[in-house]
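LAB NOTEBOOK - FOLDING QUEUE
OPERATOR: T.R.
BATCH SIZE: 2
PURPOSE: Compare the predicted structure-token outputs for two unrelated chains run back to back under identical settings.
PRIORITY: normal
REVIEWER: second-year student, initials M.K.

ITEM 1
FIELD SEQUENCE / FIELD STRUCTURE:
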Amino acid sequence: MALKEKLMEDLKQAMKDKDVNRKNAVQMVRASVLQVEKDNKITLDDNGVIEVIAKEVKKRKDVLPDYVKSGRQELIDALNREIEVLMAYLPEQMSEAEIEALVKEAIASTGASSMKDIGKVMAYLMPKTKGKADGKAVNEAVKRNLS
């Protein structure tokens, strides 16, 4: 089953189960997918949908510290539940050790030796980690290994 179809089925199921958090999260992702498709006049495949979901998860994770500062626990809990729902649609995330191993391989194959070469290393790594690892975590691992 294609990912877009799975999102639609899960939306229907969440409505039947009266699971408001799941319904809202899936609806927002479906709206984002449709927006990207209409803006670019394309039909997204599963990889494109995964990219959109990853962006949605990143948005929610970026906003989380602001909610924590405001002390609104109900908003924090709702956001964490949304992140949990969306993470189920993403491929399994890479561990720190897997990222480190990939970074070392990238540094060896690109011949990087200093922080000036970070662009080459990141260009090598990002296609391999897309959707499987947070870009920020990959960047930090590259910086640790190059410095």
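ITEM 2
FIELD SEQUENCE / FIELD STRUCTURE:
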Amino acid sequence: MNIHNLSKDAVLKSLLTSATGLAEAEAVKRLHEYGLNEIKEAGKSPLYKKFMAQFTHFFAVLLWFAAGLCFLSGYFQPGEGLLSLGIAIIGVIIINAIFTFIQEYRAEKAIEALKELLPFNVKVIREGQSQDIRAENVVPGDLILLSEGDKVPADARLIEANRLMVNNAPLTGESDARLRSHEAFNGDYFESPNIVFAGTLVVSGMGRAVTYATGMSTEFGKIAHLTGGVQERLGPLQKEIIRVTRIVAVIAMATGVFFFSLGFFIGRDFWQNFLFAIGIIIANVPEGLLPTVTLSLAMGSQRMAKKKALIKTLTSVETLGSVTVICTDKTGTLTQNRMEVERVWTLERQEQRQGVGRREEGVERKEGEGEIFRKNNSLNMLMTTACLCNNATVENGNYKGDPTDVAILRAARGAIGDLKAERIYEIPFDSERKRMTTVYEGSRGKGQGARIKGQGSRGGEGGVTLFTKGAVETVLPLCTRILEDNEERPISDDDRSSIMQTYHSMMDEGLRVIAFAFKETVTVRKDVIARSGSDEAIFIEEIASPSARNDKEELFSDKNNLESNLTFAGLMGFEDPPRPEVPDAIKKCQGAGIKIIMITGDASRTAAAIAKQIGLVKNTPVVIEGHELNAMPDSVLRERLLSPEIIFARMMPAHKMRIVSILEDEGERVAVTGDGVNDAPALKKANIGIAMGMTGTDVAREAADMVLLDDNFASIVNAIEEGRAIFENIRKFMTYIFAHLTPEVIPYIMFAIFKIPLPLTVMQILAIDLGTETIPALALGIEKPEANIMEYPPRPEKQGLIDRVVLFRGYIFLGLISTIGVLFVYFHVLFQGGWQWGMDLPSGNLLARQATTATFLGIVIMQIANVFACRSSRESVFRLGFFSNKLILLGIVSEIILTAFIVYHPWGNKVFDTAPVGLNVWLALVPFCLMLLFAEELRKWVLRRK
């Protein structure tokens, strides 16, 4: 079936559907028959392959190599315990693989859960009623409605189109938007203008289409099946973690080789040196670092989702914490997006009326109410224009549509009741023109009556009326006449001055102002346009003949000519109250050294008034309007952007892109908000693109890194706070991990140089790295943001996860203090048992085993002190509270139980080569734990003083 060759009626017939859509029962039947409308991940690895991959990564290969050497050595030199060590290393590989697999599986499930928070919805017609459904429930034969910003859910054939432009880049790679048409096409299927493909993006206009292929049957699905999926790329943070761990591994191997060689010079035999080298390597390798980071990011993403900020990629979580500038929209982000018509203005009514939009008139009006509208026909015409130049709808008493259109329609219905007219053409609103125009023929008013009377209008038989609304500066220049006392007359300079004075007055009160105009002199012959009988049709559907088609194209192709010689009807001022939580969020940003720049399409006075209300500006800000920005060189714009308070008004999406680019060139890390199709380039360009979940288009959400589920500016600030916390948490547990490496390595070095008994066995090192410290490390990775984390400026751009501060604090400061305590109990046990310097102890000797047990116990107990010390790099643990992180307490209890098993249970003694030690060894470590906490508290105090 060549569906693109068929007429509209033939398309509906072939797909067994109609202009009123499918019946619900039929849709359910087809869903069972064709399955869900989803692209299956053909290239997604099964779980067993993901698990097996844990045995072949860089660390695993190193450990396999070490285990192989142990087995080989055990074969040639039996009785040295190397066979047992080889088995233990394989056990480490298996334990690490299970741990990593579980972590990554949990992170993957967390991401899938986050995706469910932002479903892909589609508007369809079923049984003649418009409804929103999940895209996965779309079936062949569904009638879908498409408008600007939508993503096409399935392959579909257009049956109506009004200036519909579709970008096929997701499918073809060609980024140019193409004009679509509903007419039959006899050319190539892929070139047909009446076909829209799944995954493509609606750039402008609107249309209706019938789906004919869903899921894997779509062209997008066929490509996905052929390619078998694409390997997911690693983010910058993941690459840095891998780089760091490989560097640490190389250092560990180099250290092992160095001390292996050193052992020969001081007279140790080969097997002692080999055992020592293996111990050094294993002691330095942080096996669980990468999965712990991944889980930390995933948990952070879930916490952010609870705060209404949905992160699409895990690595964006960390990037958020480094943001230095937020470029934010005003409407709906800083304000509540609950528009109400606060004031209206017409020429003969110089006074302004408040609270227009707060009444629902026209359906039920009290005695005396509405008299003002019956007596004032100019206001009546303003409301007629407002009603008909509008895309909001009322369904079962509920208003649907853009918040501004909803406010306008509510006010108009309250004034003049319902109007019915047949829309035959529309020029949609766009951000460059800043206005919208509709063309109607025939209307009737309910209540006071409307000015349009179909065939009786001024245009004569076939006369149609044009209505326009938009920004005052774009509508007023198109007007040559003005309505006064229900009569049109030429507009004078005094009229324009009066309009502008009122306009400025409204803006200074923080109102958003829209102008309305009309023209009743548009004439179209009856044979030019053949219209649909459907009340909902808003498209020019069919052209009666080739000559009629040419007449229609000539009439409507020149928008500028159509929107000329208009009659000015009046103004409406809208109040959009600021969100109550925004002032505190702005104050928090300012305290955190984050600059906020308002970029809005509203007028400058309105923007400045709102900015003062919410505390964004306190003095006289620098205000730049769109036309000024167009003429401004980049060098001047760079200078203006240095201003502490700056507002951009009457901006277009292209302006936003330019501002973001220059900010990034200046070294700023920029978060930018957007909701429209044209915002997508700026969202992609920014370090963090933030789309609106409630009002944003599918295109914007797809381009963004983060989606605000509540469109609230305060949620951005919460997300930045969480991003900072996650970065700090990763540094916390890395410091914690590094802090125990020093007391593991230094005893080994002393063993090699000073010929003391072996202080720590490889098995005991493994028990620490993969046993006792696992849960405390995870607990540090999911710490909540510190109370004052937003009181510090953003971190420097070049500051990585591992820097001199982390290395010094972990390896040197905390590590050396821990080492002192560990060596103290080691030598305490030796000397107490009668050992003297230079005395050799056999490996199975009870005193030697007790000494290694004391070293093992010392590292575990000192790490308990370290976990509290590492909870913050600045704040006192006493301020944070010892019991505020329940997972840390669980980790401490679990490691004490595991340690007691290893030290006192016969099985633990046998596996880990330990021996029971007295209570005095435990107590001897307490002063060193207190010393570590005191030293760390002193360091933090000095840091806070600075």
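REVIEWER COMMENT (ITEM 2): Residues 734-946 form a domain with the Calcium-transporting ATPase, transmembrane domain fold (CATH 1.20.1110.10).
FOLLOW-UP: none requested
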